[in-house]
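Changelog-adjacent note: as of this version, every example in the card shows the full chain rather than a window. The one below runs 424 residues end to end.
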Amino acid sequence: MHPQALGLAARLRLGRIVRHRNETTPTEVGKESRNAVFCCIAPDPPPDPHDSYYPQWTFAITRAGPAGCVGIPEIGYRDRRDRLEEWAMAGMPPTLNQFIRARQQDYPDAIGEFSEVMNAIALGGKLISREINLAGLVDATGYTGRTNVQGEEVAKLDEWSNDLLVDLLGETKCVCVMGSEEVEGPIVPPESASNGRYAVLFDPVDGSSNIDIAAPVGTIFSIQRRVTNSGAGHLEDLLQPGKNQAAAGYILYGSSTMFVYTTGQGVHAFTLDPTMGEFHLTTEDLRFPEKSNVYSTNEGNAGTWREPDLQWVDWIKQDDPGTGRPYSARYIGALVADFHRILLKGGIFAYPGNTARPDGKLRLLYECSPMAFIAEQAGGAATNGTRRILDIEPSGLHQRTPYYIGTAREVELIGRFHGSEGPG
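Full-length structure tokens:
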């Protein structure tokens, strides 16, 4: 049977998933565990049996029934382990898991819970990436017909990805409470998992309106250390200013799938090798370029912008080569994609407040704070026009804020428009 005939994860209301681990041995293939049964399904047509590098599909079939299948491209267990060893000997870049564990040694009190949380998010990213790549084939496009707490239409992939991340993070038993852009209140995992050390917030699919046109989308996450003592997590574990984040990152689903994160010690980018099901380090310690003359904003909303923002956008479009103007406009319509391009190429992303929404559209906890943490660690900045994003004390899970993020020089410039003086 061809893997696509199984419907993949799109048809699964997830109960439990067994995460793929490098140490899994060949004898475990097809072995029933408490949570699932592993099986390998070769591609159709079958590969040359002598070609150990041909990718296979590894599925965890849950107890949800015959429709419960999830899959990502994998190499056979024995061959995958051998490939990793060969890459290490050849000086290939480390995997995300290897990179995190190497840095775990710098923290004597670390017990591996952070690694478990990051691995769960990474696995979620692999599965979401696979679902996006097959969106038109597995009925993952379009909308559910419902609206979320934001009053926005819920895309099918929004709902599926949210359930997936909640399940994976709960299975780690390292997370005491979660917050999702798709859910109104805190999400408390099962009692057995509620003593975890971390609180996690996420936007499962940022820019989901891009799914139907095969444009880039992303996942954003923020990891906070819990502030309550023990037991189930509470709202206060989630309502922390961005400066308290233990880690933040995003997964970009585009021409390649990239995992970018920071723990406050630089920003590191990893690219998914779909034949191995592994994220490999591609750029360590990412930094914004010093100069750029690119801006990214939905200028179609300018008719309702406030005066400082109108003055700013008019100024950057004036013809003055001596100051690098006019700027070039680039706008994708997904924060992850727009920010990633600015991180690599420089510039500024702006989503101002307006007369209809003085507090803007973007969510402080699910979008703005995580990206602001990354921006500052890459030498950039993020503000609401007058105040540093990471200093804002949140008052609600779905609080919104005007947002300006990018190279420090460009963010400082827009701050001058919002202050008492223009740029001159």
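Structural remarks: The two ends are 67 Å apart (CA to CA).
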